[in-house]
Amino acid sequence: MGSTNDSSENEIRSWLKIVLKDENFKDISVKIQGNSEKGDGTADNQSSKNYDLVLKCSKKSQALRETSPVKEAFLNEIFMYQKVLPCFFQHQKDKGVKAPYNSVPKCYGSFTGENMEVIVLDNLKSKGYELWPRKQPLSRRHIDLVVTEYGKYHATSLVVQHQRPTEFQIFVDAVNDIMEKFTKTGNMESLFGTPIDQSSELLKNDLDESILLRWKGLKNQIKTVFDHTMNDSKALKVILHGDSWNNNFMFLYESGEEKIPLKVAFLDWQVSRYASPIVDLSYFLFACLSKDDFEELDDILVRYHTAFIGHLVQLQIEKPETLYPLDQFLAEWKQHYKDEVLDIAEVAESGKQMTDTFANEIRDKENYKRRILPIVEYAANHNLI
Q1: Which range marks the domain in which residue 282 is found?
Q2: Which SUPFAM superfamilies match (predicted)?
Q3: 109 lies in some domain
Q4: Which residues lie below 8 Å from residue 328, measured CB to CB, with a gap of 6+?
Q5: Is 70 exceeded by the pLDDT of residue 138?
Q6: CB contact set of 112 (below 8 Å; sequence gap of 6+)
């Protein structure tokens, strides 16, 4: 969320000395090689050992920190990298899983200070990983790769929940529900209602009036839908990734002219929480699918569930299909978009609410319309609205 440009080299060096204290070197020289709009800066340690790192830094804006759970979000991500994910990785290793879920950058550690949180990660760009263009829907190969990894991750979370219940409960209790905190500081009706109004206006000549009325009707159900999604006591629950739009995945490709994705890395674990895996999956698919792939969504859902069950088998679960039967998964699916990135610190300092970040006029109307139309049509055709 922050930027290394907000911090001096001396400040960065002091963070790295703390984070890399076990690496047994006397001094650290830092070279800042780049900075991204998402707030990740690259630092290179030129000591006895070279590191190519990404420093993810929180915003220092006091206005933002007073009006939104910035600190809690970073502490959430730190906890996921340093406690939850290592436990999941170790459990898979203990069970002899040959193709484990480990699709995250290596975390070297973290630093927390007054009005500052820093997470130090391996720089995946230096290993050939790339971001997908954020305004383009993912290709089917990318979709299949991500849902397969989600199936493996969710299955691992479920098994740890069953086989290490005391430790897992500690995780559940410690993970902050950032979305719940966010809803308490912002107007959810405005957050979701404004895009519904804007998309309804854009689609008024492309949809039957009956479908458009059903879409507009979602405005009156926002709180009900949100509460059900977050608090459904009957649904299967796991610790989620939580932030599933396409700019939170990096891909490693097979060499050659045709870009075939071989691996994916999941980024941004700040809004991880304990909820239904449908939350991850629906967010990802509705945010990242193309119009053509919506026609094959049933096949994609089956692919996810097959990966989920297959990973339960790898984790040595007897009768794995009984833990999350396909009919239960599809029923929960049935019960249950970031084109324009703004500076949320600027919004907070202007005196606006966090939800105002998403209430601006859509700039790229044609692209937005192209993306939202198949979503509304799918929702209508499958009685989701």
Answers
A1: 61-104+124-381
A2: Protein kinase-like (PK-like)
A3: no
A4: 236
A5: yes
A6: 74, 75, 78, 118
